[in-house]
Each structure stands twice: as structure tokens, then as C-alpha cells.
Specification:
This protein is an alpha/beta fold. It has a single domain, classed as 3-Layer(aba) Sandwich (Rossmann fold). It is built from four helices and seven strands. It has helices at 12-23, 39-49, 88-93, 96-100, and strands at 2-6, 28-32, 65-69, 76-81, 105-109, 123-129, 135-139. It has a seven-stranded mixed sheet, covered by helices on one side. The radius of gyration is 14 Å and the shape is globular. The chain binds adenosine-5'-diphosphate and magnesium ion (MG). Magnesium ion (MG) binds at residues 39-40, 59, 81, 109.
Length: 140
């Protein structure tokens, strides 16, 4: 397990590098933490580090799954925000298993309803609010 304290959003790139090094070749990552903990903000930083154009990364408020292109690659990164998912069945109907087992990065906010579908080696990230701009980030 790794634990990093970031004192401001400016320290997120360091945490993102540490997470990617920790994850190695594991590409499915489940992010938990209350609303405002910084899941989306951290995922945006991770996506940029993985080569996604800054302009492309937005909060997937209205889509359950956003696909981002990786510069210089034919691969995609999937950013899922499952806050509005209603059931495991709905996830299966949108073909979520194809994303989870397709070999591309899947960065998932609110993974609780699809827990049973997640690969065994899913990287778990927990964000905790310490103060206005400080967060504790745990990887396991
Ligand atoms: P979530 O997706 O967990 O609901 P968001 O990333 O949408 O959270 O929102 C986090 C908010 O907290 C943003 O407004 C962001 O600017 C702010 N924030 C302040 N400090 C940090 C930090 N160190 N890491 C992440 N977000 C931070
Ligand atoms: Mg979010």
C-alpha cells in the first residue's frame, strides 16, 4: 500500500506518477471517496500524464463512460463515472465488461455497483479530504 498527502492540486502530477508506477501493468483503477474528494480532478491529471490532450478531459457528468484518445497511439482511455448507474444489470447492458477486460486503461469513479465485475487485480485508490486543498491518497 502507498499513501501520499497532497497539499494542493499542483502536487497531483507527482501523485499520478507514483500511482502509475505502483500500478505497473494493471490498467483498471477504481477511485473511491466522497463527492468533492478529488476523484475527477486526479483522473484528469492521470489522463494528461498518459498522453491525453488536456482539452479532451472533462467530467463525465452526463455520460457514464467517456473515451479519450491517447496522442500517438490507437489506444483509448476510458473514464467512467458510475454515480448515476442504477444497477449492475444496466452496466452489463452497456457492455461494461468489454471495457474492463479490453486491455485499455479504465479509470472508474463510483465503482461500488460493479464491484463483482472488477478484475481481481484492480488498483484501488481512496481519496480523503484533509483540508480545503489537501487530500490523502491511498493506493492498494
Ligand atoms: P470528485 O470527482 O471526487 O467528486 P472533483 O475532482 O470533481 O471531486 O472535485 C474536487 C474539488 O476539490 C475540485 O474543485 C478541486 O479543485 C478541489 N481540490 C482542492 N484541492 C484538491 C486536491 N489537492 N486534489 C484534488 N482536488 C482538489
Ligand atoms: Mg467526480
Amino acid at each position: 500500500m502507498n499513501e501520499i498527502t497532497v497539499n494542493s492540486p499542483g502536487e497531483l502530477p507527482h501523485a499520478a506518477s507514483a500511482l502509475l508506477a505502483y500500478a505497473g501493468n494493471r490498467k483498471v483503477m477504481a477511485f473511491s471517496g466522497e463527492i468533492g474528494a478529488g476523484k475527477t480532478t486526479f483522473i484528469q491529471v492521470i489522463c494528461r500524464q498518459l498522453g491525453v490532450d488536456e482539452a479532451e478531459v472533462v467530467s463525465p457528468t452526463f455520460a457514464l463512460i467517456n473515451a479519450y484518445d491517447v496522442a500517438g497511439s490507437s489506444r483509448q482511455i476510458y473514464h467512467m463515472d458510475l454515480y448515476r448507474l442504477e444497477s449492475l444489470d444496466e452496466a452489463l447492458q452497456i457492455g461494461i465488461e468489454d471495457y474492463l477486460y479490453g486491455g485499455d486503461y479504465c479509470l472508474i469513479e463510483w465503482p461500488e455497483l460493479i464491484e463483482a465485475l472488477l478484475p481481481d487485480d484492480t488498483v484501488r485508490i481512496k481519496l480523503e479530504i484533509l483540508g480545503d486543498s489537501s487530500r490523502k491518497i491511498l493506493f492498494l
